[in-house]
Amino acid sequence: MTFINTNGMAFFGPGSEWFWAALQFTALLITFIAIYRQLRIGQSQRAVEQVEGYSRLFENERMIRLKLGTLVALRDGTGISLNVGVPIANYLEDMAALCKRGHLDIKLLWNSLSEEAEIWWFVLQPMVKAARALMGATSYDNWEWLVGDFIEMDRREGGHATIDAEWVDNWLAGGAIERYQDRIRLEQALRAVVIASPDSLVIAQSAAAVPAAAAAGDADADASPTPGS
């Protein structure tokens, strides 16, 4: 049985056009694959940077203070103020909306923000329920969708434990409030560092140069012969 008929096949000269066309097609295919891989790598890198940027915003000093205020109110049973609860909820709702519309990669977001999103969904449930009673049942529905997907991904990947009342109590008892307070003190300490300006450095260098020049002048005077010697 003949699988490839080589009769009449030519690689050079007349009749070899098929070979060079196939070779050209192969080269173009390899080029397209290489370009596609580079584009995918670039897209992946931009996606990682985008998610990391949004995650850093959730860890800035303002958000830390809002989280601290929320946990203090939860610990003391005084009721969570809308002034501290709403910005946290709105941030996570916006993140969820971007993810739902395909602007953020849900897998990357799960890696960096799943626990935070699930913790604050549980902690801020009273506020979410009040918002839905006041503004409609769709309030914070994107955030709820994201948390549901995160929980499912946790289950498949063996992620962190389920966030419930016992988990939050243990979290608070383990020093969650104190850690936020330490982070605020650190931010304040960093702002208190005094950095000398370049002008002051130039002035200091000039001041140091004056005594050196004077000392050099005195040495020259001592070395010169006195009149009448």
How would you describe what is shown here?
Helices cover 76% and strands 0% of the residues. With 229 residues, it is mainly alpha-helical. It has a domain at 34-192. α2 (61-76) packs antiparallel against α8 (176-191), α3 packs antiparallel against α4 and α4 (106-123) crosses α6 (141-157). The chain is elongated. The N and C termini lie far apart (122 Å).
Strand and helix map with partners:
Elements: H1 17-57, H2 61-76, H3 82-100, H4 106-123, H5 125-135, H6 141-157, H7 165-173, H8 176-191, H9 198-223
Helix pairs in contact: 1-4, 2-3, 2-8, 3-4, 3-6, 4-6
User: Which stretches are poorly predicted, pLDDT < 50 over at least 5 residues?
Assistant: 223-229
Number of strands: 0
Number of helices: 9
Shape assignment: elongated
* Strand composition percent: under 5%
Label the structural class: mainly alpha
Write the element-wise H/E pattern from the N-terminal end onward. Answer: HHHHHHHHH
- Give the rounded overall mean pLDDT: 78
CA radius of gyration is: 34 Å
Distance between the termini: 122 Å
Q: What is the helix fraction of residues, given as a range?
A: over 70%
What profile does the largest beta sheet have?
Answer: none
Summarize the structure.
With 229 residues, this protein is mostly helical. The protein contains 9 helices and no strands. The model is unreliable at 223-229 (pLDDT under 50).
